[in-house]
Amino acid sequence: QCWFAENLRTAVYANGDPIPGDLDAASWSASTSEGAQAVQGNDDANIADYGRLYNSHAMLDERNVCPTRWKVPSDAEWDALVSNVGENPGLKLKSSLFWNGTSSGTNEFDFDARPGGYRFSSGSYYGTGGLGDYWSTTTWRQFNSSNEAPSNSIGTVYAEHGFSIRCL
To answer: CA–CA separation, 164 vs 142, rounded Å?
Structure first.
C-alpha cells in the first residue's frame, strides 16, 4: 500500500470543481446532501498541521476528493494497514508531535497520524490535539489518546461529521 504521508488539504475535487467550504455552523449542518469541507476551528493556520475535514458526501463524491490515481481507502484497506503494522498500531501510526500530553505516537511507519479533531454535524468543532478521525469509504477510524485505531460505523449520525482523509 502507498498512503499519503499527511492529511488531505484540498478544497477542490480531482476534476477541479470546488468543494464548498467556509461554512458557518448552520450552513455546515444544512449541507446534508452536498459535499463540504472545513478547516478545524475555521482557522486557516490549522491547514498545514491538520489538513481539512470533509463530510461523507465529499468523501464519496464521484468527482473524487483525492487527486487523480489516488482514492479514499476502503475499510478493508485500513484493516490491511493496521494488520501490517502489527501490535499497537495506533501508537506506531501516530505522529510524535501535535498530540496533547503524553498521547504522542512513535510514527514508526511514517504515517504521521495527527489529531485534527472533527466537525460535528451541528457545525461545531471538537478534539484538536486529542483525536484524529479518518474516513474510509464505509466507516471511520479514530486515533485517540489511548492509541487505539478501531473501526466505527458511519451510521446516520456520523455521515454529516467532518473527518480527515488519507488518500491511498
So the answer is: 10
Band of pLDDT at residue 150, cut at 50, 70 and 90: low
CA distance 77 to 54: 19
The C-alpha cell at 8 is 488531505
DSSP 30: H
Q: What integer pLDDT is reported at residue 90 of this predicted model? A: 85
Residue 54 CB burial class (10 angstroms; 0-12, 13-18, ≥19): buried
Half-sphere exposure of 13 (CA within 13 A, CB side): 16
Going from the C-alpha of 76 to that of each of 2, 47, 79, 83, 119, the distances in angstroms are: 14, 28, 5, 10, 25
Q: Are 67 and 75 in contact (CB under 8 A)?
A: no
Element at 69 (helix H, strand E): none
Q: Distance between CA 154 and CA 168 in Å, rounded?
A: 19
The grid coordinates of residue 48 equal 498545514
Q: Give the span between the Cα atoms of 68 and 14, in whole angstroms.
A: 6
pLDDT tens digits for range 28-49: 988 768 999 999 999 999 999 9
Q: Chain-centre distance of CA 13, in angstroms?
A: 16
pTM, 2 dp: 0.93
Confidence of residue 62 (pLDDT cuts 50, 70, 90): very high
